[in-house]
Amino acid sequence: MKNVILLTIDALRRDVFGCYGDDKGLTPFIDSLTAKATLFTQAHSIAPYTQASFPGLLTSSYLFDFPLSKEIASGRTLISEALKENNITTAAFHSNPYLSDFFGWNRGWDNFYDSMHDDVDEMNPYIKGNVLNGKVQQWLERQVQNDKYQPFFLWVHYMDVHEPYIPAEQYLQHINPAIDLKKEEMFRLFKEIILTRDITDNKIVALLKQLYWAHVIEVDGYTRELFSILDQNGVLKESTVIITTDHGDEFGEHGGLSHDGKFYSELVHVPLLIVNPPEKVGECCVKIVSGLDIPPTIMCLFDLQSIKNFQGRPLYPLNQYTDSGCYGEAMGKLSHKIKNTDQPVFYYQEGMLKVIYRQEESRWELYNLDSDPMEQNNIIDSSPKAKVMRDRLQIRIRRAANYK
Question: What domains appear along the chain, each with residue ranges and CATH number?
C-alpha cells in the first residue's frame, strides 16, 4: 500500500457496531467495510481517556513513561516524526484541545489542523466531522495533483460522538422519534447529569445513551463521506485505513458517566478495523492487541522498521504476533477533570482475566471476562490466578513509580 490513514473516533464504544454484535443498525457503513478488513475482536486501549490513551496511539508509549507535564515529552517520538524522517508526507485534522499544538502534538506534521483558532461555543465545542472532511478534501486535491504524488500518512480524528450529546433531529429520529428535546434541554443534561456523574435516575441515563447512539449514526455517515473523498481522489485503493478509538464511554455500568479513570470494558475494550490490510481480508483476529501497536503497524505498512522508542509491536504478519496480554495506566480520576489528589490506576489483561489496581484506595480487582463479561464479580480473593495476575501488573506499577 502506498498510503496509510488513521481514523480515530473519540469516545466510541465497541458495542455500538453491528460487526461486534449490535443489532440496532447504528454503523451500517463501517460494518460494510469488514468484508475487506481485518476485524480485531480483542483490541484494547492503554487508557480510558484522551490524555492518557493517545500517547499509545501516536507515540507507542504509556502515560507514566515520562514525568507528567503540560506538553508531550520530547523523549516520546510521534509517528509523524518517525515517518517524516523517512520522506512520508504527514497530515492531521482534528478538533480535540488535548491533542492541540498547545500540548506539543503538532510535532512532525507537514500539515496540522487542530481547530484551536476556530470559533466554537460550549454547546458545540468541536468542529463537526463533515467540516474536517472538507479540509481533508482540500488537502488531498493539492496532494494528488498527479499520479506521482508522495506517499502520505493521514490522521483524522472525529469528536462528534463525544459529550455534550446534542444530536441533530435527523439522527435522533432514527433512534427514537418520541424523544422531543430542544438543544438547550440536552445541554442541560450534560451540565447537570454528565458533569456531576449523576446516575440516580435510570431513565435519564437511558436517555443519554440514546442521544449518544444518535451521534454514532452521525459519525458513521461522516466515515462514509471520508471514504468517498478518498475514492474520488483516486487514493482509496492505494491506502490502508485503520479505524479505532481512544476509549469508550460509560453509562452507569460501574457507577459513573462519561470516561473517567477506570479500566472496565466499556472504556478500554475498543473497536479496531484495518481496511485494505496486507493479509487476512474479511477475517477476525482474536489475539489481544494494544493501542501501543498502532504506530509500529503504521511503520510496517510503509515497509519501514519500527523505531526503538516504540513499545508496541507491528500487528502484521498476524501469525508472528505473540498474544501476550496488554497493560494500561492512567490517573484514577472520578470526575470531569483530574485533581491534584488523584492517584494512578493500572490494569493488565491476559486471556480472559483482567486485574485492576487503584492506588488511591490500594484496591485490587480481578475479573473473569468469560463468566463475568460485565465485570461485576471481583474474584481477587478467591481465584487461584490472583497472585500471578497481581505479580504481572506489579511490573507495570513499579516501572511507573516515578510518574510525577
Answer: 3-322 (3.40.720.10), 343-404 (3.30.1120.10)
